[in-house]
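User: I'm curious whether this sequence folds into something compact or stays loose and floppy. Could you predict its structure so I can see for myself?
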Amino acid sequence: MLSQAAYFLLQTIEFVFVYPALLRFYLQLMRVPARNPISNFVIAITDFAVRPLRKLIPGLNGVDMASLLWAWLMEIVLLLLFVAVMGANLSTGGPIVFSAMAFLAFVKLIEFSINLLFFAILAQAVLSWINPYNPVQPVFAALTRPFLRPVQRILPTLGGVDLSPLVVMVLCQLIQIPVHALEGTAMRMISFAG
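Assistant: Here's the prediction. I'll summarize afterward.
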């Protein structure tokens, strides 16, 4: 019972710290204007960690690599805590366990990135139906445009309906299959070494 509560708490911490840091990276990567409610929230919740890391990690072509590093480091720490809550002894595995944890954290960031894209497309579709002039609509458009536009070039609209969001959402789910396989491989590495 206590381990379930700890697991839930760690998942909540992951949602509050890792997802916003990753979203901050993508907002800058896709050149989303900073004057919107989502960017303001993401910057406010991640600034305490990203600003100090910027002094150590320079940006790359205008993209804040410190936010990506913060997301990855937080995921490593949370994975170590997840494994500790489950009662595993990681001290016997040595450097192999920690390199497997770093790899698993990287795979989890790929999974979270796919989830962010999926939900950005879903939010954009819902907002286009109920409130197309919402101030966050341009944010979702900027995040999803690089993925929707190639599909829109190939797939024509049918009866005035753009099916590219559906196609990209299905592709997101298909890409999750090899990502979950990588996650399983990393977990086996951890359990074998530990």
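Summary: Residues 2-193 form one domain. Helices lie at 2-29, 37-56, 65-85, 95-130, 137-154, 164-193.
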